[in-house]
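OP here, attaching both records as promised.
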Amino acid sequence: MEEKLVDARGQVCPMPLIMTKKALKELGTGQPLRILIDNETSKQNVMRFLSDNGIKAECEEENGVFTLRLFGAPANLSHPDAESYCNTGESKPHVVVINSDKMGRGSDELGEILIKAFINTIKEVSPLPGAVVFYNSGIFLTLKDSPVLESLVELERAGVKILICGTCLNYYEKKEQIGVGTVSNMYTILETLSNAGHIVCP
């Protein structure tokens, strides 16, 4: 049976994955498939996609071009969402979540000291978070009389998003007292958390 070819040279993720998925759907029973990729990250992503779908592939490299060879494919892919395998190798920024105006349990006085120290220290850590999310009583730290207002303003100037739960502001009747940040909704907060490289919650 004639070999099917996917020439993904010059393509960046997610195109090699999309092209591979399309070829697998069109592949005849027992028909061999050859995939050409000239990008290390894309090669790794395609290999993971194939492996997770129970497809074994041989890989050879010559002059910067990876040749993947496989024979046949299952009728239905167990992990069909090829685009989700697109890992560019770039790490996503982390997100800090502040859900209280105190840190830890026990002494409230100590908790207030700790949360101040934590927020004041964020700007000293590299890399900076992509966002700091405030909800529940954590929103008090974004108000005009906040003891960490200066640090949060500095973070915002550095490009860190300061997201404040709008529902929480309304509940505590503090919407008119915001000193820094952007009033946000649960959709944006969830989207921010879902796209984070990791989440830090003191």
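Record two, same layout:
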Amino acid sequence: MKELSPVYLSALAAQLGTLSAFLGGFAATFLATLLTLNRRGRLLTVCIGLSVTSAVAFVVTVVAATMVAAVTHPNAPPVVAVSAAGLSRVLMALGFYLGTLSLLGTLGCSGSLHSRGVGRLTALAAAIGALCVLAMTIRFN
């Protein structure tokens, strides 16, 4: 893992924590909407599974980002900074990637609940979005 300055990590954690809280709320709201549909089927089950994965991943990201912010604080005890920094950084990054990609997956498959044409459009938009996210973030790995 690359050594990054505490100031940079703190700013990154604040940004990812805020964004993940917002997107996690969106994923949870989307999940609640899917759960209230009076339908059954494999596609709905996939959408619900992706939405749950997204919401949970974003919750993990928010907690991990909070931990990163805590351990990068100038007054953090040395034992805290050493023991939690690496794991929190990994969970923050993985949670954000998983949450983002599963949210895009939810959006992509949800259109098919309406019609085949809308499903193709939402799947295409989600695939393009996932490729863009991966292309923009690949250098951070």
